[in-house]
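Notes taken during the Thursday session

The instructor put the following on the board and asked us to keep it in front of us for the whole hour. The protein is Transposase. We were told not to look anything up and to reason only from what is written here. First, the residues (92 in total):
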Amino acid sequence: MNQSNTRYFWLSAEQMRRMQSFFPKVRGRARSNDCKVLSGIIYVKRYGLRWQDAPAVYGPYKTLYNRFARWSRMGIFARIFQELARPDAQGC
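Then, after some discussion, the predicted structure tokens were revealed:
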């Protein structure tokens, strides 16, 4: 990731490391970078954008949408939020 793109990424390497266990394992073909895709999802949701209006730095908007829909269906975001809301969970 080059210096000009760092403003687009919302999560640190440490934060991504802590969340990695919540994401499904990679099977078969390598998938897009989880940090990049998750940052794109956060960006779209944070600013109330349409998926196709996401900055190109996050990759194809269809990848963002498909990953958001799949992970939502699988309950991944709910598990992450539950973990972060635990009283004994350490902050980011």
